[in-house]
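hey so i finally got around to running the thing on that chain from the lab meeting. sorry it took forever, my laptop kept dying and i had to restart like 3 times. anyway pasting the input first so we r on the same page abt which one it is
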Amino acid sequence: MAAVEIYTTNMCPYCHAALDLLAERGVAHTRIDVTGDPAARGALVAKAEGRTTVPQIFVDGRPIGGFDELSQLDAAGELELWRDSA
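ok and heres what got predicted. didnt touch it at all, straight out
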């Protein structure tokens, strides 16, 4: 099982879509909400190599991008590999 982190904001429709997709595929993840939290947003920007948009998704510490990239990985069957098998 992969360690999946997703940085989100409350009002972002792509964040909600990404969270829904992860849940539908049974992928355990940690959500970090940066809504109104400048320190958390700064940590996101540093970790995401300067990208400021949300969602930002990391798998085993590796940045994969946002919802579009997550959807592409899902279409390729990659999310199945991240699934919680417990």
